[in-house]
Amino acid sequence: MPTKKNLVTIAHLTKEELMYMMEMAGEFEKHPNRKILDGRVVATLFFEPSTRTRLSFETAANRLGARVIGFTDPKVTSSTKGETLKDTIMMVSNYADVIVMRHYLEGAARYASEVSPVPVVNAGDGANQHPSQTMLDLYSIYKTQGTLENLEILLVGDLKYGRTVHSLLMAMRHFNPTFHFIAPKELAMPEEYKVYCREHGIRFTEQEEFNEHAIAQADIVYMTRVQRERFTDLMEYERVKDVYILREKMLRSAKANMKILHPLPRVNEIAYDVDENPHAYYFEQAHNGLFAREAIICDVLGITLDDVKNDPTILP
Ligand code: CP
Hints:
alpha/beta, Rossmann fold, 2 domains, binds phosphoric acid mono(formamide)ester
């Protein structure tokens, strides 16, 4: 019996595996509507709120012919009666071929993958990892820059609690990036990720100032929301919530190729006057999530790039 495949963390994927997933996402962008998952069931278990991740996973499943079960609010499940995560996962694996799960606890996806007989995809676990977001971020960077190699990347905002930036820097270790961490002291990149950078030869700088000069050197400006839900002290959140706001006038010296990414949702950190600027890419980035997640579901189910390329079930 083949080993069960999960997507719990991006950290273990090789460069070849990441590039393979880029190619698979590209195939799905060419032909997003197929019946390749006809007869399969995808479960989406969301213990935390979501718009993009859940809806794009469900759209991916639907556009590939699968059916979807799941919940968007754990309060309507038997976890409120005391059912454990292990038992919930065991039950759902009786019904579904793959489980996509978002959970507020760091490590919950790893645990679910260990107890589940069917593949588990981590749709975000606390402040830890968000590997499917990273896959679509990489795909967006690859599409807009034509490469993942040798890029100057600004990570801006909540680098402490923002799981998307943690996953992204781990994935980029294969591609010789230079990161510039821009955050107030309270939201600085945690030491463990700086240690990770040093161990993997990833160059980085740290600064608190976010201005036109910082943007001018960047190929990618990756904005993040201050993660209100992770603060134990809301006074501290109030102090830092609007610390950086990207405005259109700050883009005057930007390189022509520079793109602004944001995992979304945004609150105040990108002014609306940026939305129409050619550097803005965050809505297209979210659209790319559909293709990346089609690739992820197929990959964990053992469907290969060759299967996707030679798929007879493509719909017009
Ligand atoms: N980027 C992201 O995870 O968005 P949602 O929280 O809406 O899923």
